[in-house]
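Trying the structure run again after the queue cleared.
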Amino acid sequence: MKSEYDVIVIGGGHAGTEAAAAAARLGTTTLLVTPDLERIGQMSCNPAIGGIAKGMVVREVDAMGGAMGRATDASRIQFRMLNRSKGPAVWSPRAQCDRGLYPRKIRKILDELPTLSFFQDMVTGLLEEDGKISGIETRAGIRFRGKAVVVTAGTFLRGKIYMGRQGMGGGRAGEAPALELAAALEQRGLEIARFKTGTPPRVDGRSVDFSRTDRQDGDPEDFRFSGYIEEAVPEQRPCWITWTGKDLKAVVQKNLSKSALYGGIISGQGPRYCPSIEDKISRFPKALRHQVFLEPEGLETEELYVNGLSTSLPPGVQQEFIQTIPGLERAVITKMGYAVEYDYFPPHQLRHTLEVKKFPGLYFAGQINGTTGYEEAAGQGVMAGANAARKILGKEPLILERHQAYIGVLIDDLVTKGVDEPYRLFTSRAEFRLRLRQDNAYRRLGPIAIEAGLLTEVQEEAFLLREQKHQSIKKWFNETAVSPEEVNPILQKAGTPEIDSPTKGSDLLKRPGVSARDLARVAKANFLDGQGLDALAAVEMEIKYKGYVQLEEERVKTLSRQASFKLHSMLPYEEFESLSMEAREKLCKVRPSSIAQAARIPGVSPADLQNLIMEVRRLRSTAP
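Done. Tokens:
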């Protein structure tokens, strides 16, 4: 058994698999160590990938050569593009996945990498030489030497699971916590804190009365999360929507003292944007109901994930409240919901490469940095694995800036602002939203990935073909004139003036309500299939919103020049409705003296800062 590697990755979750894959794609000998090799790529909570902002990250991970997009395509059983009613800058792809297919595909992708090895054991300690991390030790007493170590321990660091007031050690149901590794990291003088997260119960779909729920089918379009390698997509499945009501509210309120969180057992802060049902009932007492999604766990099971009912209440209470929900009156619970409290290391201790400042050669990625979500973990994993390998190879660090990627926004937020609650990425956290779209992820990051050596030969070839397709489509719109007979019916339907002479497609595309697909169809273009449709979407946004992107960049420059903008200590932040609720709460608490100080407050996004400047100017203009 080989005992020395370039990069060692601890943990086989979404951060760990991407870190190991990135390091191996760069050619370094890489070892992935995890307590159970059968659970590599496990979807611990909802078997879904993507969503608001998260879908952009999945495409960025794929553009950087990652595995998540391919595995999602190969396992997705429902696809939806969220936020279609809003501008394309915030369109976000989301897929419900087969819980069994996804990790199997992840393992298959990892097995394609010849320099990546695997070992099953719990890591209990780190080896150190001359102030640098030099390897790991496992519970079995085996030592592996490594020039860099990436820790992606998820919720396992001193993890404790709660159903009611009773707690038991565990990183997730049925798996032991990582106690020794947490202690080893803390003993090295790193700051440590606790967060919590949770998961809802699952139910047997055969016991659900779907006639009392609303069916939700996926989108029919042939969308792919992966732009390099096309995977076969499985058969699609519907989801269902139902609602909680006053009866559930009564059950929860009566039993709040039995909750681990509200009973005072858990002290760790939970995710604001994925609250438990106890949080919803307590924080929103006037709400008459809360939405619940019944989502399939896979093609070969009738089990349903009850999205919206995350809880730490005892099993008996879970059974009682779930049967108050329409359609679930006779529901049989197959797995109980639970909360898990775990250690994380505040990310101000990291460099932008995700290397720990105090210990060269040690990298953190995923929930250990205070984040939540598979996608945020994967984005960090790619960057941590790439930077660990590049350092060993004597290459410059790979850092994505905020204007280049949501991954750049994510890491900069973590390192610069820190976290005081589990971090979740939103489009509002990015000041370059029109540039950071899901449709142009490959044009933004493909060249960076190629230069960094992160793409395989197959992926690089696919990128070049994709770029050629993009350029040919763009040329078509810039050079092809569409006749009035062809396009006027489209213009009439869009409510825009008709034309009386042939007009270039690029000029027509700038009109509201006119789509690239419609123009290409009436002009009988030959790129309305496969990757042509994906490239077509990117060309459409590039042409249609070019002016807006330029204006956005100018606004960001202006914001930078106004970093010394002063703020009065008594500003009525609670009245500034253009700011997010989170930003108003944080600003009221901190009372910053300037925009520069406000920018460093966790939860205050760049978009909030722009709106804050406008609110203050408005107040000043109306002051006597």
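The mean pLDDT is 91. Worth checking whether this holds up in the mutant runs.
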